[in-house]
Amino acid sequence: MKFTELGLDAGILRAVTDQGYDTPTPIQAQAIPLVLAGRDLMAAAQTGTGKTAGFTLPILQLLSQGSGLSAKRFKPRALVLVPTRELAVQVNESVRTYGKHLPLRSTAIFGGVGIGPQTRILRAGVDIVVATPGRLLDHLNQRNIDLSGIEILVLDEADRMLDMGFIRDIRKILALMPKKKQSLLFSATFSDEIRGLVAGLLNNPATVEVARRNAPAEAVAQWIYHVDRERKRDLLIHLIEEHQWHQVLVFARTKHGADALSERLGRAGIRSAALHGNKSQGQRQRALDDFKALKVHVLVATDIAARGIDINELPHVVNYELPNVAEDYVHRIGRTGRAGSSGEAISLVCVDEYKLLRDIERLLKRELEKRIIPGFEPDPRIKAEPIMKGRRSDATGASPGGRSSHGGFRPPQPAKSNRKSPARSGGTHQPGGRHH
Question: Is 0.90 topped by the overall pTM?
Answer without folding.
Answer: no
